TrEMBL record:
Keywords: Magnesium, Metal-binding, Thiamine biosynthesis, Transferase. 2-[(2R,5Z)-2-carboxy-4-methylthiazol-5(2H)-ylidene]ethyl phosphate binds at residues 137-139, 167, 187-188. This is Thiamine-phosphate synthase. The keyword Magnesium applies. It comes from Muricoprocola aceti.
Length: 213
């Protein structure tokens, strides 16, 4: 399944850490109201039964907004709930194996930090790449940092869409202009904000400007 570049403009990744008493469903809905174009459910803690229940509710919500819904890492859950696809890291599974399990019509995203990884992921059937961290995040080891030059080189080396991830905010997103990316993936720039809907709207405007610059 080919991903439409437009769908990757503002890619939100969920994180239960920022809920502050709210439900995941309500914060995701706010972000969709604010214009999020793609949603990845990322859950490290939940047991499978709860994960599946919640995932199905969020998937239904995304369908109402016609926004692609994919699951992080867990290929089996993505299959069992018929999600739109899955996002895997370099260590999780070869994209080729994921494609064999998921079938031809699902979206597969792969994280990449180097041109070599990017080219290989495309060859193995990835539909888009998440490249980062493009800015220091504090949430991951800084060894994962990807320079602007590498980001640009990756965009030039592959024909599938590339999004940047890692430490991106409304303030620094413009620094990615000209790199060749078609969008950004964020967690805290949306879900850690007081007004999630407004944060999504503002970030989307800035990202649109950056992509067109």
């Amino acid at each position: 399944m080919n991903v439409d570049k437009k769908d990757l403009l503002l890619y939100a990744v969920t994180d239960r850490h920022w809920l502050n008493g709210r439900t995941l469903y309500s914060v995701v809905k706010e972000s969709l109201d604010g214009g999020v174009t793609f949603l990845q459910l990322r859950e490290k803690e939940l047991d499978e039964v709860h994960f599946l229940e919640e995932a199905k509710e969020l998937q239904q919500l995304c369908r109402e907004y016609q926004v692609p819904f994919i699951v992080n890492d867990n290929v089996d859950i993505a299959i069992s709930m018929n999600a739109d696809g899955v996002h895997v890291g370099q260590s999780d599974m070869e994209a080729g194996d994921v494609r064999a399990k998921l079938g031809p019509d699902k979206i597969i995203g792969v994280s990449a930090q180097t041109v070599e990884q990017a080219v290989l992921a495309e060859k193995h059937g990835a539909d888009y790449l998440g490249v980062g961290a493009v800015f220091p995040t504090g949430s991951k080891d800084d060894a994962d940092d990807v320079s602007y030059e590498t980001l640009k080189a990756i965009c030039e080396a592959v024909s599938i869409p590339v999004i940047a991830i890692g430490g991106i905010t409304q303030e620094n997103v413009k620094e990615l202009a000209g790199s060749g990316i078609c969008g950004i993936a964020v967690i805290s720039a949306i879900y850690a904000q007081q007004d999630i809907r407004k944060a999504s709207e503002d970030l989307k405007k800035e990202t649109q400007r950056m992509v067109e610059a």
